[in-house]
Amino acid sequence: MRALLTGASSFTGTWFASALAGRGFAVTAVHRRPLDAYPPLARRRLARLEGRVRLVRLPGLASPEVTALLDRERFDLLCLHGAEVGDHRSPSFDVVGSLLATTAGLGPLLDRFAEAGGRAVLVTGSIFEADEGSGPEPRRAFNPYGLAKTLIWQTIRFEVERRGLLLGKVTIAHPLGPLDKPGLVPELLAAWCRGEPGRIRRPQLVRDFLPVDALALAYAETARRLVEEARAIRLTPSHWPETVGAFARRLAAAIGRRTGLACALRLVDPPEPTDEPPARVGADPLRAFAPDWDEERFWDALARGLDPEDRAPQPVHDSIFG
Length: 322
Fold this sequence. Notes:
The two termini are 22 Å apart. Helix 4 runs parallel beside helix 6 and helix 9 (244-259) packs across helix 10. The strands form 5 sheets. Strands 3-2-1-4-5-6-10 form a 7-stranded parallel sheet, with helices on both faces. A 3-stranded mixed sheet has the order 7-9-12. Helix 6 (144-161) links the parallel strand 5 (120-126) and strand 6. It is 38% helix and 19% strand. It is globular, with a radius of gyration of 19 Å. The longest helix is centred in the middle third of the chain and has 18 residues, at 144-161. With 322 residues, the protein is α/β, with parallel strands linked by helices. The protein has helices at residues 11-22, 40-49, 64-72, 95-103, 106-115, 144-161, 184-193, 212-228, 244-259, 295-304; strands at residues 2-5, 26-31, 54-57, 77-80, 120-126, 166-172, 174-176, 198-200, 206-211, 233-235, 237-238, 240-243, 265-267, 284-285, 306-307, 312-313.
């Protein structure tokens, strides 16, 4: 099976590409910029894929390079993982701009893919979208970024289904692990390495935390089923559905036990205000799609990224890639 994956330089994209290769796919992973134009973390992500997948630079879905690639090669699966993100938590996030940039060239791409014998399209969604996951009704979009992702999904769905292609979707909650982008877990690890307590601003929110290596296994298994079983499939993985405060204590216990760091926490009381939904979690147990996932190995690898010399978490963990 041959897969073409966009968004290979992202945190989850790196893991998905590697897991697809491990599941038997011949993977062509797309990055949009020259390698030396990426920030250091993205360059390290892409470097980890060398030798596992074929890396190809394609400036965008509408570029002549995409047309040329699909004229030369046949792919069974098109994995649409790339998206225009920017500051996804900004209240001024450009919804329409993100939609247009992410879906530019989509129609011609799908036409070429289908004409060459392509079979299925797998889309990555976000639990920030409207009507995704489980939680109090109405399940509105979290923010403008969530609205953009909702519109992107519906646009892709329309274009894929009208061409008679199989369609799958993996909707992601809150992944964590090696090569992570800035956010809750890297900030906590950095604070603990400095000997400071980690600050949790909204400990009461209920979210779903996903170990990225298990998530990647589930993504690859979804891809396999989509192609081999020739049926539409939707997956919204769930692993640690709990309050942010409870997850922070889980993380602190796992890292503290392995490093000897204090891993203290300061839960803001009263919590900082937010208009995000109070609870939004996944619906499908992650273990069902990744039965061989090893939790202890995951925490061990994350802990080994804490370097006592420079007191900062290191973003690359060789061991967890196996």
